[in-house]
Design a protein that fits this description.
alpha+beta, 95 residues, flat, 1 helix
Length: 95
């Protein structure tokens, strides 16, 4: 928390459960704001989970913590992109 420069600006958002797996829940955010995919253990519910259930949560705006990318994460991202491109090339050459 001490790395954040701005005070919390939490507000309530709502969404709808659109996918359930053994370990995760995917929520479409209302207002065309995108999706969240979270582990089931993070979802608080007194009800059996079902597609179409509405959820609500507090969220603040993300804040960039510094001017430079974290090298560790940057390397992982680049490696994943390289592997995806390689897979794509293999798929295209097999067709």
């Amino acid at each position: 928390m001490d790395r954040l420069k701005y005070t919390s600006t939490e507000r309530m958002y709502e969404g709808v459960i659109v996918e359930l797996t053994d370990g995760s829940v995917t929520i479409d955010l209302k207002g065309r704001l995108g999706q969240f995919k979270i582990p089931k253990r993070m979802l608080i519910s007194d009800y059996e989970l079902k597609l179409g259930l509405e959820v609500g949560f507090l969220l603040s705006y993300p804040e960039v913590l510094g001017p430079e990318p974290n090298e560790k994460y940057e390397k992982i991202i680049n490696e994943n992109q390289r592997r995806e491109a390689e897979k794509q090339k293999q798929t295209e050459s097999e067709e």
